[in-house]
Each structure stands twice: as structure tokens, then as C-alpha cells.
Amino acid sequence: MAKLQTLKAFQSRNYRLYFSGQSVSLIGTWMQRTAVYWLVYEKTGSSFMLGAAVFAVQFPSFLLSILGGVVSDRYNRYRVLLLTQVASLVQALLLTALVMSEQYAVWQILTLSVVLGVINAFDVPARQAMVYDMVDHKDNVPNAIALNSSMVHLARLIGPALSGIVLEKFGASVCFLVNAFSFLAVIASLLFMRLPPYKRSERLHTALADMKNGFIYLRDTPAIGKVMIMLALISLLALPYVTLLPVYAREIFHGSASTFGYLNSFVGLGAIGGAIFLASLKTGTDLKKILFVNTILFGVGLFAFSHMTYLPVALFFLVIAGFGMMSQTTISNTLIQLAVTPAMRGRVISYYAMAFFGMQPIGSLLLGALSHYIGAANAMLVQGVVTILIALLFMPFLRKRELKPKDKMKIEQLKERSVETTG
Questions:
Q1: What is the pLDDT of residue 328?
Q2: Which of 52, 53, 115, 55 is nearest to 359 (CA)?
Q3: Fold of the domain built from segment(s) 11-194+211-402
């Protein structure tokens, strides 16, 4: 029964297809991401340039994700997603050709990273919003989102480990080529889906007005807005810790590209454990309480890892950090998806993308600069402390239990009676 509870979203055929295709594609994505970061660090030896590499691929999401959300709400999300997958395939092929030529500069790699960031700004809102559409029984949406997270972090476990081996044996260009071919899996899964005919919604406002309305909705919905602010702070001040992992691999553990791959993979191992835990939760579980506890756990993991010089123990603390980190995206996404109205889903998801993907590149630049002055270990230590402080800051909100539907109905009835009595 527990197994069925964990996999109940697979009852939906479209979601099964999406999950299988994305699983292959995300392994390629993590292989490419690991190879890009290693190439940049190998060529420059600069932790600041590592931050710049993260900034290049993720900052366009910060700038354009609201527009991506409007596109997701105004147009056929299925076609938008197909287009972004084809564009990502082309970007990976261009990166492959560039590195194979052996006549490339770091700025060229960063430029292609910016191109991928622009694609992702339109891909993420459409993809995240479509998950809701793919699940036949909406009670299974939290399970689908948790399974999504397990898929992402399973790829994070496998992709960097494979990338480290391929980097040493064959070079970065092969990592990029594998990623290009991996997009064929998700494109095929989309083509085999059976979706209801697209019904074009009536457009009562301009795209600019839709963007403005999305912000107003977010501002007037505290249950979503506070989750978004917490996610933004974690993304800015805690999640960029991965920027420093190449420095740890080479300078602290005196390793190679494989060591860097293992560090990423053990983060993914912890995250998979967290995802399986979240997918197994029963309906009605207090997600905000789990978010609080796991955020504390995330901070403790970073704090303990920061000055650890013995690799096996350091990997253990990365697993702890990965487990705690898991909640930031999964629970935040779940709380938002369950609270948002369907007409606003794409735009709100675009703000989610801004908070998650958009803050990380800025944080990576800040972290790269900070580590330049106080060292990578001290910078990681600061991140651990700040993560714990963020959890404590939001503790009153996270410990506040949501009203049950029956209680909400009673309150509304009391309000109506009060109005009638006053009248």
C-alpha cells in the first residue's frame, strides 16, 4: 500500500510518459551543467567566474520568466513546451560543436549559457503548469510534484557522476552531445501524449496587463506570497552553495573532475531520499511544518560540511544538506500549485521560477565574491548559519496551521449571518 501511495500519480498515462521522457533528458542536462562549470573553473581557476557561469544560465530566467508565465497562460502550453525542448537540443549541439573545435573562449561558453537561460524562462512556467494538467485526479498533484522532484534529483545523482567519468575519459564535448540526444526522449514522450483539444481562452487584457494582474494576485494572496518570499531568500542566500563545489573538489579535497561529480551526486542522493519521503506523505500532512524542520536540517548540513576536510564524512553531510534542500522546491511548489487559481497558474509559476532560478545567479555572484575574500569554507559556513536564521524568521508562518475546508465554510457562514444581522 505504501508503494502505491508513493506512485499514485502514475495512474495518469500522460504523466507516466512525461516522467519517463524527462528522466532521460534531465540526466543529460546535469551532465552538461557539470561539464560547463568544470570547464570554466579549469580555464580560469576563479570561484568568481564559477558564479558568473551560474549567473549566465539562470539570470535570464529572472528577467524573462514573468513573460514566460504570460505566454504559458495565453498560448498552448503543450506547443510552447515542444518548442523549448527543440531549442534546448539545438543549444546543446552548438555547445558541442564549439568545444569540439578546441578554439573557444570562456565568454563563448557563457554566451551559449545565456541562450539556454532564455529558453528556460519560457520552458519552466509551461512545464510546471502542465504537470497539473497531466494528472487526471487532482488529489494526486502533490504526489506528482514530489515524484518530479525525485526525478530531478535522481538525475542530479546520476548525471554529475557520469559527467565526471566522461570528462576524464572523453572530454566535455561528449557530455554536451549526450545532452543533445537526451532531448529526443522528452520530445518523443510529448508527441505520444493524449491531451484534450486546446481551447483558446478569451484574452480580455494585454500581455502587460496580465503581468500586472499576476503580481497583484500574488500580493493579495499571503498563503502564496510568503512561501514565495521564503523560497527567494533560500535561493539567494543558501542554494548557491553548489557554486563552491568545484573549489572543494580541487582545492580542499585535492581531487579531479570525478571528485566534483561525486560531490554533486551525493547532494542528489540526499535529495532523492527527501523526495521519496515527501512522495510517501499521506494526504493532509502539515507540509509547512516539514518545510521548517527540513530548512533547519539544510542549514545544519551546510554548516557541518563547510570545514570538513575528510571526504567520506563530508559526503555524509552533503547527503544531509541535500535531504533538507529537497523541501525548498518541492513543498513550495506544492503549496503554490494547490492554492493558485487555474487562470493564474502560469503567471504564478513564473514568479516561482523567478524566486527559485532567478535569485540563485545573483546569490552565486555574491557567494563567489565572498569566498574570494574569506575563503570557500568560511563562505559555506556563513550560508549554513543564514539558512537556519531564515527558517527561524518564517517560523510563525510555518507553524500556523491552515484551516480545514469545513472550518473555512463555517467562517464564511458566520460572516454571511453577521452581514444579514447588520442589515
A1: 76
A2: 55
A3: Growth Hormone; Chain: A; (1.20.1250)
